[in-house]
Amino acid sequence: MGKKIIAFVMLVMVLGMQVTTLDAHQIDDISCFEAIISLVSCAPFLTGVGQPAPSTTCCEGAHNLFQKADTTQVRRDICQCLKGASIKFGVNSDKAKQLPQLCNIGLSFSFDPSIDCNTRYTAPGKKQDVRIL
Questions:
Q1: Element (H, E) at 130
Q2: Which of 4, 18, 90, 119 has its CA 20 to 30 A from that of 40?
Q3: Model-wide pTM > 0.70
Q4: Residue-range domains of the chain with CATH
Q5: How many DSSP H helices and E strands does the chain contain?
């Protein structure tokens, strides 16, 4: 089982590098590749291949990424990056929606790979959806 997870993580990393060569823009202080790498330990949970709940390492990476997303533009860019990656990596949308709650991340909406990144975001510390014009 351990070898399968390691092989899966390596596959995700290789695919992540391919994603970033196609979409290698810098997201202010974090690149798309760095955003994907911060969640690579979530891959077994997000794809439904392994764990029924996200690991501690997964939640730490998600928390770190959420803390770096401190402006509207960074949140939009990370959203677009992860949205594209979730499609390419076969992320289960139900698992993606569960991740913020299971990792105790204060989003006022569930992350859905079909979300419109240009119109919705949640500012850190706010408990309501904010529409961006």
A1: strand 130-131
A2: 119
A3: no
A4: 26-119 (1.10.110.10)
A5: 6, 4
Task: Give Cβ neighbours of residue 26 (< 8 Å, ≥ 6 apart).
Answer: none
Is residue 3 classed as helix, strand or coil in its secondary structure?
A: helix
Farthest CA pair distance, the chain: 48
Q: What are phi and psi of 131, to 5 degrees?
A: -95, 130
**35 three-state secondary structure:** helix
Q: How would you class 123 by CB atoms within 10 Å of its CB: exposed for 0-12, middle for 13-18, buried for 19 or more?
A: middle
Output the tens digit of pLDDT for each of the chain's 133 residues. Answer: 555 555 455 555 555 554 444 444 444 578 899 999 999 999 999 999 888 999 999 999 999 998 888 888 888 888 889 888 888 889 999 999 899 999 999 865 556 777 888 875 544 444 333 333 2
Residue 30, beta-bridge partner list: 27
